[in-house]
Amino acid sequence: MTLSDYDYQLPAELIAQTPMPNRSDARMLVVDRKTGTLQHRRVRDLPEYITPKDVLVLNNTQVLPARLIGTRSKTGGKWEGLFVRSALLWNVLSKTKGKITPGETVQLQTPEGGTGFDIEFIAKQDDGSWQVKPLTDAEPLTALRIVGSVPIPPYIRSGRMVPEDAENYQTVYASVPGAVAAPTAGLHFTPELLETLKRQGTAIVPVTLHVGIGTFKPITAENIDEHQMHPEWCTLSAESAETLTECRRNGGRIIAVGTTSVRVLESAAKTENAVSRSFGAFTGETALFIKPPYQFRNVDVLLTNFHFPKSTLLILVRTFGGEELLKAAYLEAIRQRYRFFSYGDAMLLV
Questions:
Q1: Domains in the chain and their CATH numbers?
Q2: Sheet hosting strand 282-286, strand order edge to edge
Q3: Which residues pair with 235 in a beta bridge?
Q4: Which helix (H) or strand (E) holds 178?
Q5: pLDDT tens string 41-56
Q6: pLDDT per residue as tens digits for the range 130-155
Q7: What is the C-alpha separation between 289 and 271, in angstroms, rounded?
Q8: Is pLDDT at 166 greater than 50 in this prediction?
């Protein structure tokens, strides 16, 4: 397969700019891989497709206030950035007129327009990010909450946050801070929908994958085998592994919510126990790029949003659902005026 095989034409008006007022009212295109049929439902109908034997897997990562705005001390020019990760120093993506040089500082501002703290640029990294030193004694998460805002994708209002995004661009079960983008399939869930699933006996287990720039790095090579993913940190706990193993023993299905949950489960499949259909705990970085002819080991059903043309996410979904069936599903979604991308509608692949 080449990159051009994953292109499609999407009318701009189908890119959702806001979520549904009630998250679970989003449309859900049900794709039956066995029969090749398509059915139009709503996310609130999801319990009809899940049994008490099944396990629903949710990515509990929490989106950081990672978007940064500031003023260059050297030139007075506007600077924009995206926090990527932190260790002793921060790594940020940088956008400004002119060229940043090591030793330069930027004064960050708060989302309300007030004065925050400075960051000092140390060195540019091979992945295009900068190592910067935050000139504050605050812990990274505390510091980000002072100066950062929700990193809304550029296809939503040109990346301009509105106050409602602070809640809308976060899953209701987010609990582990670390992502720079939301695991968007999970945005459709409400506490009521989760409670309905629990009442019918379906187990719900968390995994964590902190969505980073690797998920959204554009593929530049026409030969997709030449694309390298940036590593992202993930974990599957021993408790979650035990529940998933019990599901397999009882003949249940593993239902992944979102491509990030898929990548955690399939990364764990590289362990010896997982290959034998039982799960072991897994923690570490994953750079797994799922593309044909990948054979899935740990995922039976996938709930996902509609993804960008020529993206690693679209390649993953078509590898799971089948090339021709998923091409037809996307054409049907466009014809039926589904809403696309982060705040858009969903697809259930059974």
A1: 3-63+167-349 (3.40.1780.10), 67-149 (2.40.10.240)
A2: 37-42, 27-32, 346-349, 301-305, 254-257, 55-59, 203-209, 232-236, 282-286
A3: 208, 283
A4: strand 176-179
A5: 999 999 999 999 999 9
A6: 999 999 999 999 999 999 999 999 99
A7: 17
A8: yes
